[in-house]
Design goal:
single chain; mainly beta; Neuraminidase
Length: about 325
């Protein structure tokens, strides 16, 4: 079982851990960011992000802290507007009054395709200091194989939103292609990038991401796509997973399941699992959206019952803490 840190969150989506251990959590539908004290569970709204257009699977989604957050206080956010998905950075001023602690957004990337579905949304800084973004194909499957489109990709960029200088195609933000809807990004102890991806009706995927590689959608879903495409390292029936966030901890990838309403553990040894994936918390807390490492041997889990597809009960949505071994 997991312990509840706090409850009463509305459509929580992205999360980032502050240097003191507290969490910043985005509300997809309300376009706000809330600070959660990880000692007491106290919630404080720090501000809202202007220009967010919520609806369907869009809204205020992923959060990430600048690698130099201690000095620049920049919070990066991925969100949907009336015309596109974009990434902006906002300065977090803890000295300002609650509710007004976020500066004006400085857009670093615009033009990611938007749709009622498949907006991607996860962002994270890698060990190389570059910003990575998982995008969706916005329901237009042809975008995933189009190298000129930002949809259905994993993007890699500088803090200013420019293509990383050593990307596979110089001058392009595209790091990998052939994705349907990437919402989980994490690096293991050896610096390898892993990504979780929603399948359509058959297979959800956990992929080991290599620069310039093609992961098959819409030509392939799951394993067996042929030599042009990279097979997933692990796959699940969609009713068992529908994965969103992932995290690396204690030698395993941990994957939050929405439709599957469970947390998957995938033990790793090098680039391959060393044991069959194991499910935890099955149907105990409903839909699980986000997972991230906590201090010591723990994980933070964020539920997603108020996203329009769950069955919210008293207390939803919640932040949970789980000890792992």
């Amino acid at each position: 079982m997991a312990d509840t840190l706090t409850e009463g969150l509305k459509s929580p989506w992205g999360a980032a851990a502050l240097p003191d251990g507290d969490l910043l959590i985005s509300s997809r539908d309300e376009a706000t960011i809330t600070r959660v004290d990880t000692e007491t569970g106290r919630k404080t709204e720090i501000g809202s992000v202007p220009g967010v257009s919520s609806g369907g699977e869009g809204g205020l989604m992923g959060l990430a802290l600048s690698p130099s957050f201690a000095s620049d206080r920049q919070v990066y956010a991925y969100f949907t507007t009336g015309s596109d998905n974009r990434i902006a950075r906002l300065r977090f001023d803890e000295r300002a009054p609650a509710g007004r602690q976020l500066g004006a957004p400085d857009t670093v990337l615009r033009g990611i395709p938007k749709g009622g579905i498949h907006n991607g949304g996860r962002i994270a800084f890698g060990p190389d200091g570059m910003l990575y973004a998982g995008t969706g194909e916005a329901g237009e499957t042809g975008l995933s194989q189009d190298p000129k489109s930002l949809g259905g990709k994993i993007l890699r960029m500088t803090q200013e939103g420019r293509p990383a200088p050593d990307n596979p195609d110089s001058g392009s933000l595209v790091y990998s292609l052939g994705h349907r809807n990437v919402q989980g990004l994490a690096w293991d102890a050896e610096g390898r990038l892993w990504a979780a991806e929603f399948g359509q009706n058959t297979w959800d995927e956990l992929n080991l991401i290599e620069p310039g590689k093609n992961y098959g959608w819409p030509e392939a879903e799951g394993k067996g796509g042929g030599p042009r495409f990279v097979d997933p390292v692990a796959q699940w029936r969609t009713e068992e997973a529908s994965p969103s966030g992932i995290a690396y901890a204690r030698g395993s990838i941990w994957m939050a399941g929405l439709r599957g309403e469970r947390l998957w553990r995938i033990p790793l040894d090098g680039p391959e699992p060393v044991a069959r994936p194991e499910a935890f918390l099955t149907e105990k807390y409903g839909r699980l959206r986000t997972v991230l490492p906590a201090e010591a041997s723990g994980l933070w889990l964020i539920t997603s019952e108020t996203d329009g597809r769950g069955s919210p009960g008293g207390g939803d949505d919640r932040v949970l803490r789980l000890e792992v071994t």
